Backbone:
């Protein structure tokens, strides 16, 4: 049986970490955007501009991942509240403890995730 108090604590920790990495990534994106504005060059003909564009898209991808993670964590926290945490949202069976240990925000069992 899942200990909801422990699960909630772990989710809140992950939520804090995810929020801080989103704020870090946001800061990176701002720095990259202002570097691009300062350089005032055409991306296609300027190697430095192309590098900045690449860094920007990497940061965007990481940011999207972090935002998705945050939504997963929020959903898991509401399952803790409803006392359905640890149950697969698809088949209703318990999610394996090892899976929850690796991904406390997992919403499905391994069978349903695959
Ligand atoms: Zn399932």
Residues:
């Amino acid at each position: 049986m899942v200990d909801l108090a422990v699960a909630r604590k772990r989710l809140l920790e992950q939520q804090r970490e995810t929020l801080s990495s989103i704020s870090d990534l946001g800061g990176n994106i701002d720095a990259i955007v202002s570097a691009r504005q300062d350089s005032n060059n055409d991306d296609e003909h300027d190697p430095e501009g192309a590098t900045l564009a690449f860094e920007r898209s990497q940061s965007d991808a990481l940011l999207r991942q972090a935002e998705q993670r945050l939504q997963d964590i929020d959903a898991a926290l509401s399952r803790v509240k409803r006392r359905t945490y640890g149950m697969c949202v698809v088949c209703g069976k318990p999610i394996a403890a090892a899976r929850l240990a690796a991904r406390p925000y997992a919403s499905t069992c391994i069978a349903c995730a695959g």
